[in-house]
Design brief:
It is built from 7 helices and no strands. It is 45% helix and 0% strand. The two termini are 32 Å apart.
Length: 172
């Protein structure tokens, strides 16, 4: 979901996979704060997550069913597809325009996948993603500095903020 370009490394090199793995292994991934007692009826898109699965179970099922769909359509798993086919698959998943082989709602899987990938990209590096604060540097985010209001006043005219971001670990 985050290919390398002239400005940044790819998502794996930035630690996004590490962030996601840690999130899925923790309380959130185990569904510690989710209601998982049912009854389970199909919700509307604006109701958010409405499945009888923990996020970790959703990831496992979503990856398996996505790979099964890709094998049926392209003869190979998602990670082996050409970039154009990966993008087309992700767009169809996002729109919910496809039926995954195990019946998992494509849009529900994509929403959780996208949210955790973006969190891994932009979270404080102490959580495993955003290695070397690369995403923060890319967007000019100063990190955990308490004086950001002054920076907004000084750079609110559209000039690029010369960020040297500070993470939680830098403040310890």
């Amino acid at each position: 979901m985050i290919p390398a370009d002239e400005l940044t490394a790819d998502g794996v090199e930035l630690g996004v996979a590490t962030f996601v793995d840690r999130a899925l292994a923790g309380g959130w991934g185990k569904g510690d704060r989710l209601y998982l007692q049912g009854p389970w009826k199909t919700g509307t898109p604006n109701q958010g997550y409405q499945l009888a699965m923990t996020p970790a179970e959703l990831y496992r099922a979503g990856i398996a069913q996505s790979n099964a769909w890709c094998r049926a359509a392209h003869g190979r798993t998602f990670d082996r597809l050409a970039a154009v086919d990966k993008e087309a698959f992700l767009l169809a998943l996002r729109k919910g325009d496809m039926k995954l082989p195990g019946g998992l709602p494509a849009r529900a899987f994509f929403d959780v996948l996208y949210q955790t990938v973006m969190e891994g990209m932009f979270a404080d590096p102490i959580y495993g993603g955003n290695r070397d604060k690369a995403a923060w540097k890319m967007i000019g985010f100063p990190g955990v500095m308490a004086n950001n209001a002054q920076n907004i006043r000084n750079y609110g005219d559209g000039r690029r903020f010369p960020a040297n971001p500070l993470s939680i670990a830098d403040m310890s």
